[in-house]
Amino acid sequence: MPDRDSLKTLSDLAIKIHNEAETMSVFTSGHPLTPLRHHLATHRIVTAQDLRKLPSGRRVRVTGMLVIIHMPPTKSGQRIIFVTIEDETGLMDLVVFPKTQTRCAKAILTSEVLTVEGKLQRGGKNGLSISIIVEKVIPQWTGLLADFLEPGHLDR
Known about the structure:
Blueprint: H1 4-23, H2 37-42, E1 45-46, H3 48-51, E2 59-70, E3 81-87, E4 90-96, H4 98-110, E5 113-123, E6 129-137, H5 145-148
Parallel strand pairs: 1-2, 4-6
Antiparallel strand pairs: 2-3, 2-5, 3-4, 5-6
């Protein structure tokens, strides 16, 4: 647990980043998830860096800022949503299959910060290609960045 001075510094950083999110949408003070990491970790939400150490098939929770959503055409005609999110340690690729989209598509398509739970999947040479097959969106930690950075948001 961070000490009192660390919490004060994180609180000050969160306020700066919140103000940057509301006014500029540019972050010069640090990554928006940095001051929230302690809270996220208490809810078993891992970082992009942590994913590199976990085995394929493990259920994981991740939080990140939306980078891109891609819905390429498929031979089957089914829509598969590919999402890239970013936390303070790197990028994460998410795959959302049609069965899950009925529950999750609206949140995914309208949020700046996503928190999802799913199954870690490794592929490619030495399992270096990592993606998360999304099973659900965690709504209390998903939404607009400015709201997410509000003091006490994660405690709700």
